[in-house]
Amino acid sequence: MLNPGRALIALSLFFLPQLMAAQDVEQVVKAPPLVANGGLNMSHIFNYSPDSVSRLEPYSYYLSGNFNTSLFGVVNLPLSFAYTNNQVTANLPQPFNRFSLSPSYRWITTHMGYGSMTFSPYTLSGHEFFGGGVELKPENGFRFAALYGRFRKAVQPDSSVYEPMYRRMGGGFLLGYEGDNMDVSVNLFKASDQVGSLDLSEEQVQAMPAPAENVAGSVVLSYRLANGFSVMGEYGLSAINHDIGRADSLPGDFGDRFFTSHGDVTVHHAFKAAVAQSTSLGRIGATYERVQPNYQTFGVYYFTNDFENITANLATTLFKRINVALDAGYQRDNLEGQKTSTGKRAIYSANVSAPVSDRLSLGLSFSNVQSYMHIRDIYDEVTRSNQYQNLDTLSFTQLNLSSSLNANYVLRATEQQRQNLNFAFSYQEASEQQEDDRRYVGSRIYNTMLSYLFSLTPTRFTAAATVNHNQNNMPEMNMHVLSYNLSLQKVFAEQFRTAFTGTYSSTFNDDGGVADILNFRLTGGYSLKKRHNFNVSLAMVNNQAQRGHSTSYSANLSYSYIFDMRLLRTNKKFGFEGNF
User: Fold this and answer.
1) Nearest alpha carbon to residue 295 among 335, 330, 258
2) Which of helix, strand or coil describes residue 13?
3) Residue 365 needs a FRET pair 20 to 30 A away by CA distance; which of 54, 258, 390, 416 works?
């Protein structure tokens, strides 16, 4: 029988001879040869509906897991994956069946599979890709990162789910230095549509969006003084060829191997600078940002351009209890006079949080700075029967204004029981305004929530009641959703837990009722040796809508396994310990 310790050492010597030579020998000798931990989850979902209008699949399964392996305390090999028999519909054709592997050694980290990296908000920021990447962060302050992969899958014009598009490949690098007083970095990102990734007829080529190419780069410099003064600046540039298919037929030179300069090419710039000073009152500063019209990069999902911002900010603590962060400034658009009108406005944001007393705490925020946010649809939430529904995380809404108020009051807090009352209100303006049309065509969203929480600590019983009202004012109509929720949870003998959730929701507009939804969910879970978790969930959703009535039943059976193990050396022998 093969000795696991000898096998591990043999593999390490075969794959990592250079790495082992560079690492502290004493640390390697003392560290466990192998440390592994992670988990695995498997879920089976069954759906049944006597109505023909049900859109749920009769059966689905979801398998996911994450594993991390450490060799001699210096080499880390994390791996995660997710797989399902159904593809999840999203705005972009990225599959839910995916995996990622990110092994690391000291200051070296590599990425394989699905992942995302960030260089700069003007070049590459959080866009998912399928490929490989590397990050180097040695102790001397130098930084290097690089990646290459597929940023978008090819979609044929006959697809009934997605818009047709070419496969998009991209890559880039970042080189920088982080010192005690100064940071400097430069990054470059390029992405290009693959013209040959689709088999198209002449008619289809004319109907397709033209294949494009983008090169974007930025330079970042920041400097800090010992007295708390700091200054930073970033300059970004993005060049886009909006039709490289037509440019391929034109003569090119050596530079075209990097970027196709012939054809419909546009170049845009962006700049940001900031200064800050830390004082006894807090931290004060100012920021200037200018982004040219039509500035865009293929490394960011959503981008706001054609604006100039001048802001001042302050962060301080008042009376040792109230935390305040304020931003105020001026913004204008139509920087180059391309639009028929110019918008000028004051921009501001504020965040205030304060524990008014031992029982009452308040939080307030307000902002009119444009941002992108994923807003959960209330209808989808109240009709959801399992946690794998509505996995579209790329549906973002542009917000022009947002504000919120949160108050939490402790009614009772003893060793036997606890009672809390929470109130929250939020207001958001979601804009769908077009560049050439200044009329407001978005929506105004109001959400009010009041909840009561009661818990008995010795018996591990918790009850919660919530009332929620959501109002969406759109140009065509006003939509309201009023929902009531009751949740009960009880834990028995540490290992067995049960929960019941009931929700009644009424949706109506200015003309009357639209739908009444009743959602019941009963769940139970059992833990075995703190590593094996078995869960069952039964749900019923009854939808009484104007367009028809429907009832659906769902059952979710899931099993999760958590392990933690080590290979140790004792008295010149190897042995495993841990939970596995």
Assistant:
1) 335
2) helix
3) 390
Cβ partners under 8 Å of residue 275, min gap 6: 229, 230, 231, 232, 285, 286
Contacts of 80 (CB under 8 A, 6+ apart): 64, 65, 66, 67, 99, 100, 101
Average pLDDT over residues 568-574: 66
Taking the C-alpha atoms of residue 576 and residue 32, their distance in angstroms, rounded to an integer, is 10
CA 156 to chain centre: 28
Closest CA to 165 of 181, 147, 152, 149: 152
Residue 58: other Cβ atoms inside 10 A: 10
Residues 450, 482: Cα–Cα separation, whole Å:
12
Compute the distance between CA of residue 178 and CA of residue 141 in angstroms, rounded to an integer: 5
Q: Where are the alpha helices (DSSP H) in 213-280?
A: 244-247
* Residue written as token pair 């059952």: 555
For residue 214, count other CB atoms closer than 10 A to its CB.
22
Give φ, ψ of 244 to 5 degrees.
Answer: -80, -15
Cα–Cα dist 389/394, whole Å: 14
- Tell me, yes or no, if the pTM score tops 0.85: no
Residue 135 corresponds to which tokens in the numbers above? 């990050």
**460: which strand partners?**
none
List the one residue out of 537, 547, 553, 486 whose CA is nearest residue 516: 547
**C-alpha to C-alpha distance for 274 and 286, rounded to whole angstroms:** 6
* Surface-to-core class of residue 78, CB atoms within 10 Å of its CB (0-12 exposed, 13-18 middle, 19+ buried): middle
| SS3 category, 317 | strand
Phi, psi values for residue 430, rounded to 5°: -100, 120
Q: Examine the pLDDT at 254 and tell me if it is beyond 60.
A: no
Token pair of 47, please?
Answer: 């759906």
Residue 497's DSSP bridge partners are 491, 525
Q: What are 147-185's pLDDT values in tens digits?
A: 999 999 888 877 555 678 899 999 999 999 999 899 999
Phi-psi region of 255 (alpha: psi -120 to 50; beta: other; left: phi over 0): alpha
Count of alpha carbons within 13 Å of 332, Cβ hemisphere only? 8
11 secondary structure, DSSP code: H
pLDDT at 328: 92
Stretch 116-139: mean pLDDT = 92
What gap in Å lies between CA 341 and CA 331, rounded to an integer?
Answer: 14
Instruction: Give the end-to-end CA distance of the chain in Å, rounded to a whole number.
Output: 21
**Tokens standing for 240?**
């886009």
Q: What is the rounded CA–CA span in Å between residue 393 and residue 398? A: 14
Q: Locate tokens 């009051």: which residue?
A: 409
Q: Indicate the residue type of 531.
A: R
